[in-house]
Specification:
The complex is a heterodimer.
Chain A: H1 2-25, H2 30-58, H3 66-88, H4 92-105, H5 126-160, H6 173-206, H7 214-234, H8 240-263
Helix pairs in contact in A: 1-2, 1-4, 2-3, 3-4, 3-5, 4-5, 5-6, 5-8, 6-7, 7-8
Chain B: E1 2-9, H1 15-20, H2 28-36, E2 41-48, E3 52-59, H3 62-77, H4 81-87, E4 89-92, H5 93-104, H6 116-131, H7 136-155, H8 165-177, E5 184-188, H9 192-203, E6 208-213, H10 216-225, E7 229-232, H11 236-239, E8 245-248, H12 259-268, E9 274-278, E10 295-299, H13 300-311, H14 315-366, H15 372-402, H16 407-417, H17 427-433
Parallel strand pairs in B: 5-6, 5-8, 6-7, 8-9, 9-10
Antiparallel strand pairs in B: 1-3, 1-4, 2-3
Helix pairs in contact in B: 2-6, 5-7, 5-14, 6-7, 7-14, 8-9, 8-13, 14-15, 14-16, 15-16
């Protein structure tokens, strides 16, 4: 039953991703963008339902294994996308955001969707707080990453004087540059709070705030990259360089989320 | 005798090549006079804009005339003939007429349907008229071209849907800045096209326009028009840091904006992007500037590639316009033929009538005491002989006039056979065929040339 909801969610996201991609290829079909948005909303409702059902079934917030964590991150990204889309009406965002969500979630779906026994040490109120903050931070970084990619595409077309069909669908450089930066000004504090809450939780669980667990180390690197980026921004860096940095930052997010957690042994190992 | 068009345009040559052949407006009279000194060039007109450099000439013989015109360009600009032979196109006679009409109707333009080229053609014509290098043929051709252009404008939607270069520039600006409200624009140089672009930007929310020009008075004049500020030309590099959109169209023969200037401005404005539009020919912004991060430099050729995207929808209207041009070329050629045949017919009639009258008077003078009836009979006879003899040649000439026969030879032979060429200089004809008085440009856009 649960799994059915998950598969339905993925199916609906697949539809909206296809719709958004079709829209950006054939820009005159503006109705595709509107349709895809509502399909995404439907998918998100299914997604929440799945999350709630799983929560109800396991009796805890379902974020404790790799599959659940990826699922939670996907939810966070779609949420950020929907908020941004309703706020700024940049349909081209969907053409990039939804494929990203699918790329992140579909491979993990081959992993166990089974509800596993949670390690007793994780049982704490901090679990929800820490993971929610971290996931929202990551989702904001993901948004900035996507906007940066769009910025680079647009910037390259403008520089090369070769303006393809996609050009007409992308918003202005200024908007993308601003949004990419704004997303970080939300994402970075959330990520920071995620780290702080994790550290407090670690202290209550293991008696130490920081133990150089691989995930902690990687998160710290990620945190520093974004800190440097935000600082450079205040001294006048912008545009292409910022976009590259934001992409670099997100590569670290992905590495620590999908690789470090899997390969290394530590508190965050799933 | 024929019309030739020799030149190159944005379609056949890159801006680097075009600027080598550029004739600045102030040098046009001199260039025209020099061209006229070449053998076999009867009339001439030079059109030199950002997008095209073309010489229109009426020559005694097309092939030789083409050679002379090319030689002139080679001599004037100090370029090798081989290079010129490769890059120049030549449209002789009917093709030349068609090309002229297509250019005037903006069918050969970078932006299909844009109206500037007609004004530029009129300006070039005005200069040639003042320099007295045009006469019957070119006056007729250009006047007709102007009327064809007007017909195309009223009968097709080509101009209506035209995305001008400046609105293409506005679209690009919006892709960079989003809303243009509150953006600072600088006009560097004060050409017609720069004004046009500025007007477009104002219409899209831009409030602050700075104008820098070598002659400060002109800058002030323009600034007043746009409710902007005039700045001294030598101060523009310092003001560059405030500029979001730079429109450059000075008459300078070299780069006015270089990479160092751009880098400095970018640094001072903390790398906020600058959109630079170079509509000058020769170019005024060093292409190296484009390599500076957050600078987007577009020259005319680049804007062209932008405009292409929107052109497709107007292909149908362009087809209609081509149709009109084809019709008008036919009309013009028929008219040209008729214009040759008709005076020949008139000349022939008058000459024969002259002979008849003289001979009749002589005969009547020697016939004493004939009655009025007899007199009338003799006169009628002379008239009848003349009419009968003239009938066949006139039929052939009229056929030649309507184009149903090989026209040129017939007329030439007729003139030779009847020895008509001495009668050519009758004043009545010249007047009828010289429309120059009516073809002066409509408005006094005079001194401004769009690229300079």
């Amino acid at each position: 039953m649960n799994l059915l909801f998950f598969q339905a969610t993925m199916g609906v996201y697949l539809c909206s991703a296809a719709g958004y991609i079709a829209y950006i290829i054939k820009p005159e079909r503006t109705w595709l963008a509107a349709a895809s948005l509502w399909v995404t909303v439907a998918g998100y409702l299914l997604h929440i339902s799945y999350f709630a059902l799983r929560w109800a079934e396991s009796g805890r917030i379902p974020v404790t294994n790799f599959f659940e964590a990826a699922n939670f991150l996907g939810m966070g990204i779609v949420l950020v996308f929907l908020v941004m889309e309703f706020r700024f009406k940049i349909a081209a965002l969907g053409s990039f955001m939804l494929p990203l969500v699918l790329i992140l979630m579909i491979p993990t779906s081959v992993l166990s969707g089974r509800i596993e026994e949670m390690k007793p040490v994780l049982k704490s109120g901090w679990l929800g707080v820490h993971t929610s903050l971290a996931v929202l931070g990551d989702a904001a970084f993901a948004f900035s990453f996507i906007v940066s990619i769009m910025y680079l595409i647009q910037e390259r077309q403008l520089k090369a004087k070769h303006l393809g069909a996609i050009f007409h669908r992308l918003p202005s450089l200024d908007i993308m540059d601003t949004l990419g930066y704004k997303a970080l000004t939300f994402g970075w504090p959330l990520f920071t709070l995620g780290m702080i809450s994790g550290s407090i939780w670690a202290n209550s669980a293991w008696g130490t705030y920081w133990s150089w667990d691989p995930k902690e180390t990687w998160s710290l690197i990620t945190w520093v990259i974004y800190l440097v980026l935000l600082h450079l921004r205040t001294i006048g860096w912008r545009g292409r360089k910022m976009a590259f940095l934001s992409i670099l930052g997100f590569v670290f997010v992905l590495l620590s989320f999908f690789v470090v957690s899997r390969v290394n042994v530590g508190k965050h190992t799933f | 005798m024929g019309i030739i068009v020799v030149g190159l345009s944005h379609k056949t040559a890159a801006i680097e090549v075009r600027e080598k052949l550029n004739f600045p407006e102030s040098t046009l009279p001199d260039a025209l006079r020099k061209l006229m000194a070449y053998e076999g060039i009867r009339e001439s007109l030079i059109v030199s804009t950002c997008n095209r450099v073309e010489i229109y000439a009426s020559v005694t013989e097309s092939a030789k005339g083409t050679d002379r015109v090319k030689q002139f360009i080679s001599d004037y600009h100090g370029l090798s003939r081989e290079a010129l032979d490769q890059s120049l196109y030549v449209y002789p006679d009917a093709q030349g007429v068609r090309h002229t009409f297509r250019v005037a109707s903006s069918l050969d333009s970078m932006v299909l349907g844009e109206a500037q080229i007609l004004g530029q053609l009129k300006d070039a014509f005005d200069i040639a008229l003042k320099t007295k290098t045009t006469s019957t043929i070119l006056n007729k051709l250009i006047k007709k071209a102007i009327s064809v252009a007007k017909r195309v404008r009223t009968e097709t939607k080509l101009a209506e849907g035209a995305v001008s270069i400046s609105s293409a520039a506005v679209e690009l600006a919006k892709k960079i800045f989003g809303e243009l409200e509150g953006k600072n624009v600088m006009l560097l140089g004060a050409g017609e096209m720069a004004e046009l672009a500025a007007q477009h930007l104002l219409g899209n929310g831009v409030k602050n326009i700075m104008v820098a020009n070598r002659t400060f008075e002109r800058a002030e004049e323009l600034a007043k028009e746009f409710k902007g500020d005039a700045i001294r030309f030598e101060h523009f590099p310092d003001a560059l840091m405030m500029v979001d959109i730079l429109i450059c169209a000075t008459g300078a023969p070299n780069y006015v904006v270089n990479r160092d200037m751009a880098s400095r401005a970018l640094k001072e404005r903390r790398h906020k992007p600058i959109f630079m539009i170079d509509i000058s020919n020769p170019r005024n912004i060093d292409p190296e500037v484009d390599k500076v991060d957050n600078v987007y430099l577009y020259d005319i050729d680049d804007l062209q590639s932008k405009v292409d995207v929107n052109t497709e929808g107007r292909a149908k209207e362009a087809g209609k316009a081509e149709e009109i041009v084809s019709q008008e070329v036919e009309t013009y050629l028929a008219w040209e033929r008729a214009l040759d045949a008709v005076p020949t017919i008139v000349d022939l009639r008058e000459k024969v009538e002259d002979v008849r009258k003289r001979e009749l008077e002589k005969a009547l003078g020697s016939l004493n005491g004939i009655t009025d009836d007899q007199k009338r009979a003799v006169e009628a006879m002379s008239q009848a002989i003349v009419n009968k003899l003239l009938h066949a040649p006139l039929v052939v000439l009229k056929q030649a006039a309507s184009g149903s026969d090989a026209g040129d030879n017939t007329i030439a032979i007729a003139r030779k056979l009847f020895n008509l060429d001495r009668e050519l200089k009758r004043p009545g004809h010249e007047k009828a065929a010289d429309p120059s008085a009516q073809v002066l440009p409509e408005q006094g856009s005079g001194s401004k040339s769009p690229c300079r």
